Structure formats: C-alpha cells, structure tokens
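Key result, reporting period 2: structure in, sequence out.
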C-alpha cells in the first residue's frame, strides 16, 4: 500500500481492496447489499397489488347508491369525489409499479459501481490506474 496517501489508504482498508485483503473485517463497512433495495421493491409491488383491491372495494361500496339517492343533488358531488379518488388510486398504483423497477435498478447500479471502484482501487495498489493506462503517479497532487 505504499502508493496510497493517508485518506486513500483508509478508504482502501475499509473497502477491503488492499493487498492480501479478503473483504472481511474492516472491509465489511463499505460492503453493498442489494437486500434493502430489493425488499423495498417487493414492498412497492405489494402496495401496487393492494391498490387494485382498494379500487374494487371502492366500486363495491358505491353499488346501488345512484338508485337509492335518486333525485338528491348530493349524488353529483359524490360522483365527482368518486372519480377523483379513482384517479388518485390509479396514480398511486402506477407510481408503486414504477418505483419497484427503479429500486431494483439502484441495487443493480450500485453493485456495478462497487465492482468498478474495487477494481480501480486494486489497480492503484498495483501501480496502474485501471482505464487510464498510467502509472502510480497518475492524479498526483489532486
């Protein structure tokens, strides 16, 4: 680790990317886990599914209202409110579906970045910066 400055050396140690490290011990602090992201995505999908049940229950609750309240002016207001809530339920359902995909994408992207950073740090330790083809002096003074 002779090529590392103090701050970079600490980062490499925490990432478990230094020479002879297996990623255990101190390297655990910078480990990425896609578990929280995929669990959140699953939760969003459950919410999306539940919204379909809510919409169906909403429709069932309004069955027969028009016949029972015929002639009442409140029916027009009730119809407007119902339409508004149905749109909101659909919007929430769509957002939950979209969110699930985005949460999974974060997990994938973060894993890819972790791999790239680990590779770059290993290259710095070996005296080359991966992707630039330059020696250990690359980036000196930054």
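The corresponding designed sequence is given below.
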């Amino acid at each position: 680790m002779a090529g590392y400055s103090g701050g970079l050396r600490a980062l490499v140690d925490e990432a478990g990317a230094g020479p002879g490290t297996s990623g255990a011990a101190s390297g655990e602090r910078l480990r990425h886990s896609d578990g929280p992201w995929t669990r959140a995505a699953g939760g969003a999908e459950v919410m999306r599914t539940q919204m379909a049940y809510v919409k169906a229950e909403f429709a069932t609750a309004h069955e027969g209202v028009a016949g029972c309240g015929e002639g009442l002016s409140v029916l027009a207001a009730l119809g407007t409110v119902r339409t508004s809530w149905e749109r909101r339920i659909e919007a929430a359902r769509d957002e939950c579906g979209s969110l699930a995909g985005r949460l999974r994408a974060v997990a994938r992207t973060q894993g890819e970045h972790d791999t790239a950073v680990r590779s770059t740090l290993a290259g710095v330790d070996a005296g080359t910066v991966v992707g630039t083809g330059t020696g250990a002096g690359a980036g000196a003074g930054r």
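Confidence is low (pLDDT under 50) at residues 21-27, 132-142. The longest helix spans residues 74-125. This case is discussed further under Risks and Mitigation.
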